[in-house]
Design goal:
single chain, alpha/beta, four-stranded mixed sheet, 18 helices, about 40% helix, about 20% strand
Length: about 500
């Protein structure tokens, strides 16, 4: 396939023209996307209910159509799942991406149209490689295989007599992918479609060690699990020994900050690149366009119209939302989308911050429900990820995963934060680790610093060291073992943390 590299690189350059167009004319492009969406959906049930045919301005759209979360738009989705069409979107919807929350038992089923596959997910995937080639014109990344570590790929019928299907986004994309897409990916579909994760990791490791893997795509946690099994099979501790042509790891799903140093140890190769993307069941929103610099380029011509809700508006019945020209750098916004899959003013559940306005680049700062604000400290995942990274740097520790929750005021003491941390490599001095963690949070979050002043509201963090594998075993006990399931980093209540502690206590008692 080496001969294909120049041709593929040239195709990537041609696509860069379209990317540069929405970078240069973001407002005009988003206006066109808005008009296209309403025009396509004006005769759907949803479009007729809200009068899409006579909405000509974005402000009118905001005034008529309420902001939806999954529960409020679920009745429409349920009708589509039961076989009705032309409810949310004007073309037939036969596929649903099953998306699981971190704490809720119920799954979400996100409608996936032909347009959302072709014009959003697949187009964005091609754009990721275009951006990469733009950074590295002489790259050979597409001369080998891309190791894709997706979610649980099993596809299911909605019902015995239905011609509609559901699976996680990876499954939907694999089942509909053009044939040439499967030529450059590994492992084989018979392994990729496996639903049992422990066997899947084993089969995957056995299958891919002899491939010429030039890129890896997947969430950090499961990628690390796979790499360690590959090390056991090959007897090395450097992935570059297994795949000497490996040049890029494409990551997303969770912040890479706590994992960066660990990956540098696992892949010791000069020139190894790391590329972040922001891809969800609801849409492929952004990807890193300049390797080594902060910020993900917001994809503006991929069938998604964006709104940005200031976090002080969160929870209001009629929240104020902003367009691109109204946002400010460094401020937290909840992401709201309208899509060519039939989601309308849909609250994704992520919070983002803008790091650049020309072009518009973002970073994911957390979740609308993943924070701690029990005492007015307004702690978000972006804060804690960076504090963990600093504490690791100072103590030589390596963190696999963590979760934290508040310690409420009591008669015996003030409030605080309780942490459960699973280390790959524990710090020699846990007290020093705690001190650096605490001091970093004070330095980057003034609200946390104010509440920690003289321990008046918040006491020093309490850290419990979890045994290796604890979080994986806990997820497994809940039937949530797989790429799409994650340990919630922050919770404003104690239910998740206490559930994990009970799980650990039960297993210690049984052992």
């Amino acid at each position: 396939m080496k001969i294909l590299s120049p041709a593929l690189s040239q195709l990537a350059r041609l696509r860069m023209g379209r990317i540069e167009h929405f970078m240069q004319y973001p407002l005009q492009v988003q206006q066109q996307v808005f008009q296209n969406l309403l025009s396509a959906a004006q005769y759907t049930e949803f479009g007729k209910q809200y009068g899409f045919s006579n909405i000509f301005k974005i402000d009118e759209f905001k005034q008529r159509v309420p902001v939806h979360n999954y529960e409020s738009i679920k009745p429409y989705i349920q009708r589509v799942m039961e076989g009705e069409q032309n409810v949310l979107w004007n073309t037939p919807i036969k596929w649903f991406a099953k998306s699981s929350g971190t704490t809720a038992d119920k799954s979400k089923f996100i409608p996936v149209s032909v347009e959302s596959l072709d014009e959003c997910h697949y187009r964005a995937g091609r754009d990721v490689f275009s951006l990469y080639y733009n950074n590295f014109p002489d790259s050979d990344v597409l001369t080998g295989k891309s190791l894709v570590i997706g979610g649980s790929h099993q596809v299911n019928k909605l019902s015995a007599d239905s011609d509609s299907y559901f699976g996680d986004l990876s499954a939907v994309m694999l089942q509909n992918m053009p044939f040439y897409g499967n030529l450059v990916r590994t492992p084989d579909l018979s392994i990729a479609l496996m639903d049992e994760w422990e066997e899947k990791i084993e089969r995957m490791a056995q299958a891919v060690i002899h491939e010429n893997v030039t890129s890896i795509a997947g969430v950090p946690t499961w990628t690390i699990v796979l790499i360690k099994r590959i090390f056991e099979l090959t007897g090395t501790d450097n992935l570059a020994d297994v795949w000497p042509n490996l040049e890029v790891y494409m990551h997303g799903g969770v912040s890479f900050t706590p994992y960066r140093e660990q990956f540098k140890r696992l892949i010791r190769k000069p020139g190894m690149n790391y590329l972040e993307s922001y891809n969800a069941s609801e849409g492929f929103f952004a990807a890193q366009d300049v390797i080594g610099e902060e910020g993900l380029l917001l994809f503006l011509n991929h069938g998604i119209f964006y709104e940005f809700m200031p976090m002080e508006e969160y929870g209001k019945e009629f929240p104020r939302t902003l367009q691109l020209h109204e946002v400010e750098a460094g401020k937290n916004y909840a992401l709201i989308i309208s899509t060519n899959g039939g989601l309308w003013r849909y609250l994704v559940g992520d919070t983002i911050q803008f790091v650049s306005m020309a072009p518009y680049r973002i970073r994911v700062s957390g979740r609308t429900k993943s924070f701690i604000n029990a005492f007015g400290e307004e702690l978000i995942v972006d804060n804690t990820d960076n504090a963990i990274a600093k504490a690791c740097e100072a103590t030589g520790a390596v963190v696999n995963d963590y979760t934290a929750a508040p310690i409420y005021f009591s008669e015996s003491g003030n409030g605080g934060h309780e942490w459960l941390i699973e280390f790959e490599q524990a710090p020699a001095d846990l007290e020093q680790f705690t001190t650096v963690l605490d001091s970093t949070l004070k330095a980057i979050n003034s609200d946390y610093e104010a509440k920690r002043h003289k321990d008046i509201a918040l006491c020093r963090p309490t850290i419990h060291v979890m045994a290796p594998g604890t979080f994986t075993e806990w997820l497994k006990s809940k039937g949530k073992l797989g790429g799409q399931h994650k340990v919630p980093r922050l919770n404003n209540e104690r239910n998740v943390l206490e559930e994990i502690l009970r799980f650990v206590g039960k297993h210690q008692a049984e052992g």
